[in-house]
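step: validate -> pass
step: tokenize input -> pass
step: predict -> running
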Amino acid sequence: TYHIATGALGAYNYTLYAGVSDLIDKEYPDKYTISLDAATGSTEMARLVTMGDADFGTSSLDDIIDCFNGVNDFEGLPAGEIRFLYNTGGSGPTCHVVLPTNTDVETVADLAGKKIGVTAGYMDKYMRYMLAEAGLEEGDYDVSYLAIGDICSGLQDGTLDAGFYSSPHPLTNFTDLAFTSGMKLLNVGDELVDKLIEKYPFFHKVIVPGGTYDGNDEDVVTFTAYTCWICNKSVPDETVYEWLSVILADPERLGQIHPNAAQITLETALIDQNIPLHPGALKYYQEQGVIDSDPLADMQPGS
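step: predict -> pass
step: emit ->
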């Protein structure tokens, strides 16, 4: 049995890799047994993969390089255990700052003194980066660590003033929230996002078009880091090769699983690769004429 660490049930990664599992099963009947294991986010997925508790998972660029090197959130874990498979493309997991419609919050700085729901891990880290660049210090706000469903419930019942969650847009949970009780997507703004990118170069700017969520008619500027699919280095070469041959064969087919998945393409698969490729992935990309060799093949933890 192969274990894929994913996000929460119903969230983008869970939906995507449930569909991917079906595609792999159709292409290779009875060859692979695949289990989807829900995780809290990028940091936990990288930790699960590096420890061998999951074979595959999705993680952000900053977590990937830290995990490979065994530093920061991955201090004390074995280094060099993960390998790069592909960049998930598109805009990446959009950082949503979500507010109830009766809010008095107009800017990120206005979150001072507010109760904020966030999922633990990289989302919490990104939120704190954002709040710090807006001039807020630890203790200036009240944080609760919650799953996406509980964040939406808290915004509905008034126990939360704001929620922070990172996922490709539109996110079904927030689409439903906007339709049923209303919500406001906070504009992080060009100035603050530019400051974040200058300090943390793995971030990039994201524009959420007006109309993406009911009642939010103006474009919203926010940020994120690309996420990529990784695996443990112990996964057999044949498995990685065959799975990539299914996943990257047809973006339109992925788009039928989830619209954002159509942005996982051969052309963008190796954008921002920052750790070595798995040998099975290298073989696949070589045969597709994408690369001749892995530029990071000799990379060692801490180098």
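step: describe -> The chain has a mean pLDDT of 95.
step: cleanup -> pass
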